[in-house]
Each structure stands twice: as structure tokens, then as C-alpha cells.
């Protein structure tokens, strides 16, 4: 398994966890935080601590995802030569696509004839 594949799997796992953490949150007081601390009781850390945990985990997972994406760019197998683009390769030759030619203008005597001439 290549290094890029490992990074790809980690990116997918972190993205899934980030989706789950975001979906659990509810900005209007619902979600997981309200079920743990509803009614003013302090169950499992209370509303404030659950909200803080979800907020911190969201930022942490987002940062980890960004770092994994940036580091995975280094792990991409660029093949022999390691040139990223043909625009950067001095040996690459490219041909410009042929431009379409305009149709030749033909004159049609019937089209240019006046109605008087055609009678």
C-alpha cells in the first residue's frame, strides 16, 4: 500500500468523523448537548462541557483534515521525471490545435438575383 493510499484513507476517516461531529451539533440548543444536560441537571459533564467538547473536536478535526490534505500532496506518485506539468517541462512539445477555416464564400446567382430578373 502506497503512502498516498494511507493518506487517502486517513482523509476519508477524518472527513467522516467531522461530518458526524457537525451533525450532532445543533446551534439552537438541541442536539447532543441538550440531551446530556436538559433541564439544568449536570449529567455527563453538562451542556456547557459537551458543547465545548464538540466545538473543540470540530476545530481539531478540521485542522487535521487540512494538514492531511496538504501533506498528501507530497506523497503523490508523480512518475518518472517528477515533472508536474508539461508547461514546466522544457522538453515537452505541444502542438496547437488547428483553427477551423471559414467556409468559402460562394455567390449564388439565384440568391443575388432581383425578383424582376427571375420572372
UniProtKB/TrEMBL annotation:
Q: Name the coiled-coil region(s).
A: none
Q: Which NCBIfam families match?
A: secG (TIGR00810)
Membrane-spanning ranges: 6-24, 58-76
Protein transport as a keyword? yes
* Molecular function per GO: protein-transporting ATPase activity
Where are stretches of biased composition, namely Polar residues?
Answer: 108-119
What is this protein's record name? Answer: Protein-export membrane protein SecG
Relate the protein's function as given in its record.
Involved in protein export. Participates in an early event of protein translocation.
Q: Which UniProt keywords apply?
A: Cell membrane, Membrane, Protein transport, Translocation, Transmembrane, Transmembrane helix, Transport
Q: Which organism is it from?
A: Flavivirga aquatica
